[in-house]
Amino acid sequence: MRRTAVNTRRIMAVPALWAILATLGVPRMPVDAQPPADPPAEEREFLPVEQAIPLPPGFVERVFRDEQGEHKYVVFLPRGYDADAARRWPVVMYLHGASERGRDGRLPITVGLGPAIAAQPERYPFIAVFPQCEDVDGPARAGWLADRPDARRALKILDQVLREDAADPDRVVLTGWSMGGYGTWSIAAAHPRRFAAIVPVSGGGDPTIVRSLKNVPVWAFHGTRDFAVRADESRKLVQALIDAGGRPRLTLIEGGDHDVWKQVYIRDDLIDWMQRPTPFEQPIVETEPLPPPDWTTLFGQTATVGRPTVDIHAPFIPALRIHNALYLHLGREALEVIEYALPDVVSSQALSGRVDDFTDVTFAEGRQFNITFTGIGYSATLHRVRLQLDDGILTVHLGLRDVTLRIETTYVVGAQHSATAGPIEIVIGHQRPVWLSMAIRPRVQRRKIRLQLQSTRFSIPDDNWYVTAPAWVAVRGFGLTRQRVANGLVQGLYGSKPRIERQIIDAVPRFVETLQQQLDAVGRSEFVAAFWPLPVYRPRLRVWPQALRVDDGQFTLVMGITAAALRADRAPRQPREIEHLGLSIDRLPRPDHLVAGIAPGVIEPLTQMLVDENLARIDIRDVRQPELDVLADPDFWRSIIPAWKDRPPRLIRTELSLQRALRVQDAAVPPPKDATADVPAENESNAAPAASGEHEPDEGGGSTGATGTATPHAGEASFRFVAPSVVLTVFARNDAEAPWTVAAAVDMTLQQPVSIRLLKPSFERRIFRLDWAGPARLTARGRFLHDHTATPLSPQATERVQRQFQRGWQQWTGTGPASQLQIPDLKFGPYSALRIESADWRPPYLRLGFEIPPILLSNTSDQTLRYFTRGPYSDWGGPFELPPGETHRFRIPYPLIYRGETEYGIEEYTLPMGSHSEFRRPRSGGPPRLFQARDESPATQPSQPSEKPSGEGAPTANRPAPRSDHHEARHPLTSHAA
């Protein structure tokens, strides 16, 4: 009987999936009947596959025909491809993962290599072939194995492409992800001469078969935090190949999960290598860091390193909208950080532009002249920002310096006289900032934030502006001199101050529009996916604003999320709405710092999607846990099912699924009280540092000892996952051609407590973790089917199954936490940041608190450091003295400008928020200088930091730069002056 494909890609996405998510799955299935077929098509409205999965440019749908019928597949033809030309192109065949199985032909291009090519097709100069595995019932790891029909058909499809297209048969690369990674190893080992190279991603297999690949170039990839297919699977295969004399390359993505294809298939070095693969000179096993997530601030600034990322996802078709799913609160402290950061964040393009030409009429010596000013541009430097939030109005005060209006050409036209002049500059705010104030009412409209400009105020002080004489003047007519024209234009512009003020005010709507566009970009970010802490698949979500509140100097935004259809070819025409999940905006707490709240209750509707679509099933053999493998052993079930004692079936398989959605419940632990936030010593850093000698204990989420591990507080907040109906189903048949029938089923309930922990292994690093908190509570009841009659399993037999499952669960939970995520600082420009310092569970939200990170200055030399400090808008304070072995700590909402007196002379740097600097002797010798400290020591012991120089023998590689130009800074220490 035909069944829906198992969504193993999502089942394999995060650590807890085989159990919690592995228990997610089929609709309620009676034990005395066959699993239900999908509802008739006329009862459910789905998008046509052509609409759900459109073919991107360059992708072509093909059909392969054999004795079994027609089989759809897709081919990508690169730019410049000409089938009739003499050029022959390299070929890459991609084997998809388990969730893309089916017969539609298009699902294989929605994950992995397909979306990577679709995002930037010009980067991929090869033919790509996408066959599809049609076996939707078998174990995920076996779908592409070389002896399976789907693998044999894939090779025939490849042969068809090699015959019919302008393809080079000597440059064929085989690659695949997850289930396709297993297939890549297996098919290549069976046919090593067919492929110029292979690229298995997140795969595994039998190490005994790889000897045949010793002469084939192999570049494998795996994530170190892949809990679906462990990285050891790739390590074993690569080591076996090395032992056989091969020279493979294994790249381990540190911190990468099962979906490392997102980083792999966009690598320039891999794309180049696949075009002309060459053997490696020696075996390589390397580890590379995972690129950081796309953290997008409220002002559209993105912290990115390394190669650029692209949106490599299948079409996002909304299937579910959940209201009140998240909230973001910016208290006064967080807004103060933003105020100081904005001058570095707002781009120069936002403060420059052009205004419309304008014409004036004047009279001189009884004559009328028409004056036209053309080519008017403006630019300004943002010196300071102040924010006021009250009664729904956000008032932004911009302190502007050197506001320059440049008039390129001025035309003076009279009856008998005329002149042309230019350019002329009007400079405002050259002595001190001039303030431009705009009152904005933010509101939510159609799931977007809209900024409605209420009023604008701007005036030019008489003593804080000037007009330059025109650079040149040309005149026509008797008696009209260049000097008279120049003087007249300058005097006229001085007299036009109200008009100039109006021109600047008229430019404000354009600035507000730019700011709104940046806010819209936040909704397209991966904010939720990056923070997602729960042990289920990482869903494809989009965030949208639902309600906002601006008052009392604070900003609160409640957001909903939209989840994409689990399968694009079965996307509903209208998404389902979940209206009441979290709290209304008026009931949310309002601390001074930044809080991001996520409602774990979103798990229930998200997993309900899986239940409704029959997608969360997994073959027990795909779990790869020895204690669970017993549940797939025919001998075990022979001792359980009485009818099998004499005549057991030849073939069985065991499936784990969920009949009802997963839920989250409070574990009844009293939530901790809010910690009192530290208060900055002063509004500017011309005062003494807050501490010396020893570091203050960190607050929230546990203290950190010398080992760098977190110790939970008493009464640590936690909740539990509840799987109301976990189903273990045994299918049987006597031969490979017969249909599977249900032989037995055991229905269990599972309750697993989970604790929330925030680890602080060093001064800078923060790791959010969900830990399994004690043993799971499990109950079970079972039945077996004999002669079409359902009979309850005996209590002893049911208890045996329950115990075995419990042992497998404990074996799995003993391998690591439920989920773990390193959370970097939220960056606001190059020097300002907020750092996560607390994580707790206050139903219905899991809350992450971000606070001002301190700036540490340590002295690990044998000399006393004498230095001065100031803030962005203050005078120098000090001098301060830092004795050897001690540390000064500044907790301020802006970067610290430091000036130290050393034997080298005066050194001046900007020390970013959350940075740790140390005064020490260079490794090459010489007097002590200031260096960036290596982030290795525990946060409670900054007086003994490990060291990391920001330059060899010098404090920084960047020599003097003004504060407004930070783009060149690559290290936390940025030199101001030598």
Please tag this protein with its features.
globular, alpha+beta, disordered C terminus, disordered N terminus, 978 residues
Give your account of this protein's structure.
The chain has 978 residues and is α+β, with helices and mostly antiparallel strands. The protein contains 17 helices and 47 strands. The strands form eight sheets. Strands 11, 12, 13, 14, 15, 16, 17, 18, 19 and 20 form a ten-stranded antiparallel beta sheet that branches. Strands 25, 26, 27, 30, 31, 32, 33, 34 and 35 form a nine-stranded antiparallel beta sheet that branches.
Number of helices: 17
What is the oligomeric state here? single chain
Query: Can you tell me the overall shape?
Result: globular
Q: Briefly note the structural class of the backbone.
A: alpha+beta
**What's the average pLDDT?**
80
Rg of Cα set: 33 Å
Which range best describes the helical content: under 10%, 10-25%, 25-40%, 40-55%, 55-70% or over 70%?
10-25%
Portion in beta strands: 35-45%
Indicate the low-confidence ranges by residue numbers.
1-44, 293-312, 523-536, 669-685, 691-715, 937-978
- Straight-line distance between termini: 78 Å
Largest sheet: 10 strands, antiparallel
The number of strands is 47
